[in-house]
Amino acid sequence: MEKDNSRNRMFCLKNVNYFxxxxxFKNGDVYISSGHISKIKDAEKSTDEGYIxxxxxxxxxxxxxxxxxxxxxxxxxxxxxxxxxxxxxxxAVHKNNISESNESQYHASVSSLHKxxxxxxxxxxxxxxxxxxxxxxxxxxxxxxxxxxxxxxxxVGKESIPVIQEQNDIIENFSRIYQKYTSELISVSPATASxxxxxxNLLKLLNKLAKDHDSFFSMHIxxxxxQSDQCFEYFNKSGLERLESLGILDSHVNLIHCCHIxxxxxxxxxxxxxxxxxxxxxxxxxxxxxxxxxxxIRNNIALGTDAAMVNPSNSIxxxxxxxxxxxxxxxxxxxxxxxxxxxxxxxNGAKCLGMTKSGYIREGFSADILLYNNNDHLKFDESIxxxxxxxxxxxxxxxxxVFVQGKHLVDNFxxx
Length: 416
Ligand SMILES: [Zn+2]
Hints:
The protein has 13 helices and 17 strands. The strands form two sheets. Strands 1, 2, 3, 4, 5, 14, 15, 16 and 17 form a nine-stranded mixed sheet that branches. Helices cover 33% and strands 23% of the residues.
């Protein structure tokens, strides 16, 4: 498309149909400077001084997608099974973690993140116990990433034990990784594997670290009956009850899964509407863990693919499609609305990962933008609504171009 590909260049996507925050495609010129959308104007022949014009006539610009939950290094295990109980999966992951070298994890992460970018993911939440490996992979690719450094001080499950650390080491290690990698494209936040990998003291510490860094902590929770029962047996409370009783079910937490929840759990979530939830529908179905009842919950819900070993497609596009159709498979009152689905893969994901300038094509926001072509054989009938065009582009096409903070990462369907 163009030769200069530095983040500082000034360019303008001319005559493009951009998806605005009112969920309408509007024709205009989108100006980009220093990685941000500097202005959006009605389409005109001339281009403001200093900007390189790029003809985007007929193309559709959509905000880059956010995959809020990914374990990229687990790409290594794609295809081991096509469905399996969570207990077997966790057992294998914890056992194999020791034998995986940093090098093999790094290459798996790079490969996984390449695939994300080609599918239009510009921002990703990376859940990892080896934060340096995944941060380096994200830096190599140039994708926007929130590194969720997973630490554990307890294990009350029957599966193999994950890595356990003392609290002082946790604080020191988190601080080291935070200082080393925090930058414009990379953020670092704390995490723990699940409700059965942490003492109450660790949960309080993670909440404190999150608050001190104006951030959040992430954890898998209520991921199926087996995990929930193990938590209840040991702590005499569900994971959600534990968080609520500690007073830390607030905007500083990302609850991953929440797919095996009873009425009391739903009530807890509804009593704490600022907590974020990350929905991973294919992964939940893969391990037979249940379904997040999205229609009963008002909290901010984002979408994540989880890991290749529990989601062989591992693509946000497939999860979006699945989220749309597996909710309300016997009626329409439990369906996700198309508008909500779009928010889940854009602004909601950005919100729960602290990517405050991503999720919309808006002046002042980062230029995390996808361009889809509208060639003759795939041309939309003009009677199709803008929301449907967005969703069809997302689930049925690859983006022709992908920009992250103004840098051109995918050019003509290939990595630039
Ligand atoms: Zn996960």
